[in-house]
Design brief:
Shape: globular
Helix content: 25-40%
Number of domains: 1
CATH architecture: Beta Barrel
Number of strands: 13
Radius of gyration: 23 Å
Largest sheet: 5 strands, mixed
Structural class: alpha+beta
Order of helices and strands: HEHHHEEEEEEEEEHEEEHH
Strand order of the largest sheet: 5-4-3-13-6
CATH class: Mainly Beta
CATH superfamily: L,D-transpeptidase catalytic domain-like
Length: 281
């Protein structure tokens, strides 16, 4: 009996020691897209006459052609997928899971080359869609930004006749932000990041505003936003490449890691600052 008790005691102590030595690992569900979907180009009017589509499927077609439904109705040729029954994130290039971002509460990415955006929480894609960014004459600045102030309706700094809805500023001095505005299907803005209304509204509600200490100083920064890549303004629309290669525009988790790494320490420092502020409110 004493021998059995001694063995049990040793086993318990050994298990306890091993448990203490094992670092805590944050689990993250790895999500994958289905088998690659093929694409082809068709005349819009002819395709719509021959095919029955619902509102969700029309939304997917608009996203693939980097436009909105109003401008989609004006297009001649469109890119069409072989299957229109997947979730929208399976047609757009951002990865569903990025383990490197597991410690980042919230972050938004805008890809210039693919004209798409994505929002992540703890490394999981929670929302994605199309965008039309800055034109050649007025390119959208790239790098790390944070969501600052927001307004349901405001006017453009370029033209006071332009009404911007669900506007969220990310560069206060230059007046750059993301907001609802017409998406013609190519970079056409004066440096801002244009979105469909439903997408602009989602990010408007989802992202966090800054907290100001006074008129000149920021106490807490908002949600990090990384704008990356470049656009070939003199070439064909990049998404036309999908016809030859369905994965031509895919953004890998390694690319997201590469774009985020130079800013990760800053992002996590600001995140801790925000947590401390919220805990002391």
């Amino acid at each position: 009996m004493k021998k059995i008790l001694l063995i049990l005691t040793i086993a318990i102590l050994t298990f306890s020691c091993k448990k203490k030595e094992t670092p805590e690992i944050k689990e993250i569900e790895i999500r994958k897209k289905p088998t690659a979907i093929s694409y082809h180009i068709e005349n819009r009017k002819d395709w719509l006459k021959a095919n029955t589509t619902n509102d969700t499927q029309l939304g997917i077609l608009a996203a693939l052609n980097r436009t909105d439904k109003a401008n989609f109705a004006k297009m001649d040729s469109i890119i069409v997928p072989s299957d229109l029954n997947e979730k929208i994130e399976n047609y757009l290039p951002f990865p569903l899971t990025v383990p490197f971002l597991r410690d980042v509460d919230k972050i938004i990415f805008f890809s210039y080359p693919s004209q798409t955006f994505a929002a992540y929480e703890k490394g999981q894609l929670v929302y994605t869609g199309q965008t039309n960014m800055g034109r050649k004459k007025d390119p959208t600045p790239t790098g790390l930004f944070y969501t600052n102030w927001k307004a349901e309706k405001t006017t453009s700094t370029f033209n006071d006749e332009w009404e911007l809805r669900w506007n969220f500023n990310i560069e206060n001095k230059k007046g750059v932000g993301f907001h609802q505005y017409a998406l013609p299907g190519y970079p056409a803005s004066h440096s801002c990041l244009r979105l469909q209304e439903k997408d602009a509204r989602y990010l408007y509600d989802w992202a966090d505003q800054w907290v100001l200490a006074d008129k000149e100083n920021i106490k807490v920064k908002g949600t990090p936003v990384i704008v990356f890549g470049s656009y070939d303004f003199d070439g064909k629309k990049p998404w036309l490449q999908l016809v030859k290669d369905p994965l031509a525009l895919e953004i890998s988790k390694e690319e997201i890691e590469k774009e985020t790494t130079p800013f990760l320490d800053k992002i996590l420092t600001e995140q801790k600052n925000k947590e401390a502020y919220q805990n002391n409110k």
